[in-house]
Amino acid sequence: MQNYFITGIGTDVGKTLISAIVVEALQADYWKPVQAGDLQNSDTHKVKNLVSNTTSHFFENAYALQTPMSPHAAAEIDDIQVDLSQIIRPKTTNNLVIEGAGGILVPLNEKDCIIDLIQQKDKIILVSRHYLGSINHTLLSIEALQNRGFKHIGIIFSGDEHPTTESIILSKTKVTYLGRVSELKNINKKTILIEAEKVRGNLNEF
């Protein structure tokens, strides 16, 4: 079975939406190691509510922090320390989708960042969304991953299509293009199923 680590070039780029689509496409299990804020409607709740299949299992967060901030700051408010040794991947015989928090260099504590949760055998899915500066943020994210020695890196673009942005990113990085998810007018189980069907083939070949 395979682990898919979904990260983004920043916050609010569509990681949770893409996570739901990938979970549905692969009928995979889902785990968000660190949730910061919005605990009553967490990313786990959101993905679970968007997935139709009955195979996927949703694991509890290793850390559920109260404040919607960077995990290191949210943990300080909760008077706890995020400890990587306590972030233990759940055991499953299914594919597992792991959703990070923010971008790859978001700090978990004084030493560790989200990138430190990624393992070499993981297939990494980077979510990129067009905005002024997104090319730079995307290239920096991919370079940071490659500098750590990660080989299996794919990209999904979310939001309105920008061909010149997407083409230069793909040309410069040579990462695997897994698809794009255009702006969805309605986000529900039906639209997630439609988008899952579009990317399933690429995910299976990734």
TrEMBL record:
<dbReference type="GO" id="GO:0004141">
    <property type="term" value="F:dethiobiotin synthase activity"/>
</dbReference>
<feature type="binding site">
    <location>
        <position position="43"/>
    </location>
    <ligand>
        <name>ATP</name>
    </ligand>
</feature>
<dbReference type="GO" id="GO:0005524">
    <property type="term" value="F:ATP binding"/>
</dbReference>
<feature type="binding site">
    <location>
        <begin position="99"/>
        <end position="102"/>
    </location>
    <ligand>
        <name>ATP</name>
    </ligand>
</feature>
<dbReference type="GO" id="GO:0009102">
    <property type="term" value="P:biotin biosynthetic process"/>
</dbReference>
<keyword id="KW-0460">Magnesium</keyword>
<comment type="function">
    <text>Catalyzes a mechanistically unusual reaction, the ATP-dependent insertion of CO2 between the N7 and N8 nitrogen atoms of 7,8-diaminopelargonic acid (DAPA, also called 7,8-diammoniononanoate) to form a ureido ring.</text>
</comment>
<comment type="similarity">
    <text>Belongs to the dethiobiotin synthetase family.</text>
</comment>
<dbReference type="GO" id="GO:0000287">
    <property type="term" value="F:magnesium ion binding"/>
</dbReference>
<feature type="binding site">
    <location>
        <position position="43"/>
    </location>
    <ligand>
        <name>Mg(2+)</name>
    </ligand>
</feature>
<dbReference type="GO" id="GO:0005829">
    <property type="term" value="C:cytosol"/>
</dbReference>
<keyword id="KW-0067">ATP-binding</keyword>
<feature type="binding site">
    <location>
        <begin position="12"/>
        <end position="17"/>
    </location>
    <ligand>
        <name>ATP</name>
    </ligand>
</feature>
<keyword id="KW-0547">Nucleotide-binding</keyword>
<keyword id="KW-0963">Cytoplasm</keyword>
<dbReference type="InterPro" id="IPR004472">
    <property type="entry name" value="DTB_synth_BioD"/>
</dbReference>
<dbReference type="Pfam" id="PF13500">
    <property type="entry name" value="AAA_26"/>
</dbReference>
<keyword id="KW-0093">Biotin biosynthesis</keyword>
<dbReference type="InterPro" id="IPR027417">
    <property type="entry name" value="P-loop_NTPase"/>
</dbReference>
<feature type="active site">
    <location>
        <position position="32"/>
    </location>
</feature>
<protein>
    <recommendedName>
        <fullName>ATP-dependent dethiobiotin synthetase BioD</fullName>
        <ecNumber>6.3.3.3</ecNumber>
    </recommendedName>
</protein>
<keyword id="KW-0436">Ligase</keyword>
<feature type="binding site">
    <location>
        <position position="16"/>
    </location>
    <ligand>
        <name>Mg(2+)</name>
    </ligand>
</feature>
<comment type="pathway">
    <text>Cofactor biosynthesis; biotin biosynthesis; biotin from 7,8-diaminononanoate: step 1/2.</text>
</comment>
<comment type="subunit">
    <text>Homodimer.</text>
</comment>
<keyword id="KW-0479">Metal-binding</keyword>
<feature type="binding site">
    <location>
        <position position="99"/>
    </location>
    <ligand>
        <name>Mg(2+)</name>
    </ligand>
</feature>
